[in-house]
Amino acid sequence: xxxxxxxxxxxxIGLGAAGGxxxxxxxxxxxxxxxxxxxxxxxxxxxxxxxxxCNLTYNEExxxxxxxxxxxxxxFLLSVFSRFNQQKTRKLFEDLGIKTYVQKxxxxxxxxxxxxxxxxxxxxxxxxxxFSLKKEKVINIxxxxxxFEVKTPNESYFFDYVIVATGGSKNSFELAExxxxxxxxxxxxxxxxxxxxxxxxxxxxxNFKDIQIKSVFNNKKFTTVYGDILFAxxxxxGPAVFKVSALTAYENFDEKSPLELYLxxxxxxxxxxxxELRNNQKKSVKNVFSKFAPLxxxxxxxxxxxxxxxxxxxxxxxxxKHILTEAIIxxxxxxQKRIKDSEIVTAGGVDLKEINPKTMESKIVKxxxxxxxxxxxxxxxxxxxxxxxxxGAYICAQNxx
Length: 401
Ligand SMILES: Cc1cc2nc3c(=O)[nH]c(=O)nc-3n(C[C@H](O)[C@H](O)[C@H](O)COP(=O)(O)OP(=O)(O)OC[C@H]3O[C@@H](n4cnc5c(N)ncnc54)[C@H](O)[C@@H]3O)c2cc1C
Description:
The protein is an alpha+beta fold. The chain is built from twelve helices and 20 strands.
C-alpha cells in the first residue's frame, strides 16, 4: 500500500470555470488529494454564461488570431495556447461527455445548448474519492516552511500546493496581494455605455448588425472594432460596444470629457446614398434613407434635427442631406459613463510577469498557482474569457501528473 506522503495534497480555492476544471483533471490522478474551497456549488458561475447556453470557446485555429481577442494578456496567452488551444479544449470536453458545436458566428457551444446540463456533467466528475469539497470562504493563504496554510473563518488547513482560481473579485486580489503578488489595477470591462445623445434611447430594442466603431479619447485613437450594437432603454450594448469598453477600460471618460464614438452603420458609402437620392427624387426622405438604416433611426435623427422626413427627397436641403448621411456613415456618439454593474469581466489582476505561462506557477511563491480571471487577462465576448480558464486549468493540472 502507498505511503500517505506519496500523495500530493492540493487546495483549489474557488470552483468556478478554472478552479472547477482543474479539480476535475487533478482528481483523476489517484496520487492527488484535492480539496476544493467555495461557498457556491462547483461550476455554478457557468450557469448564466452565453445567455444560459454556455459559450465555451471560439472556433479559430490560428492561436495568433485567437490571442488578438484579449486586450490584456495577448502575449502571455500565445504561450498558454501553444500548449492547450481551443481544439484541444473541445476534445477534452468531448472526453468529459460534453460534445460541442460551432455556431454560424464561430462561437462554440455544448450540443445540449444548456449551461445547466453542462454544469451537471462537469460536476459528476467531481464525484470522485480523490476530491472533497469544503463549502467555506478562504480568508487567507499563508506560505509555511513546507507548504501552505489555508485559513477559513473557522479553521486552518494545510497543503503542499495551492491553486488560486477565485475569479475577478476584490477578495481575490486581496488574497494574491497577501501572497506578495502585484495586482494590476482592476477595472470593469465588457460594459454597456451611457451616451449623451439621449434622444437615441427612443430606439430601445433597435439592433444594428456588424457595424464599425472608431473610438477616440483625449486625442488617443483606439483599434477600430466591428460587431453588433443594440440601443437599449438607457444605454448602448452588444458585442461591438463591449469591445470598445474593453479597449478603453483604463480611460477615465465622463460627462465633461466623453469617449467619442464614430459609428458606421452600413457598408454603403456616401456616394451610394447620393446616388439613391438622385435616382429617387420623388420618394420621401425617410423612404430613401431607410434603405441604409432602420426607419425608426431615420425618424429619430430627422426629428432631433428638425428635418421633415416625409417630404420628397428633391426638397432636402444640402445641410439636411449632410446631417442624415453623416448619421449613417459616421454617427458621432459621446459615451459619458460605463453602466454600473454591467461588466461581464474584470480587466486587471495578478501581474502576468509574476506567472510562468508554461506551468501557471507563481514566480514569487513556489507551489502556488493562479488560473482564470484572477490573472491580468481579459478577452472580448465570444468564448474568449472561458478559454483563458480552460487552458490555464489544463496546463496547471499537467504539473501534478
Ligand atoms: C453574465 C455573464 C455571462 C458570461 N458569459 C460568458 C460566455 O458565454 N463565454 C465566456 O467565455 N465568458 C463568459 N463570461 C465570463 C466568464 O464567466 C468568466 O470569465 C469566468 O467564469 C471566470 O472564471 P474563473 O474560474 O476565473 O472565476 P469564476 O468563474 O468567477 O469563479 C470564481 C469562484 O471562486 C469563488 N471564490 C471567490 N473568492 C473565494 C474565496 N475567498 N474562497 C472560496 N471561494 C471563493 C467564487 O464563489 C466563484 O465560484 C460571462 C460572465 C458573466 C458575468
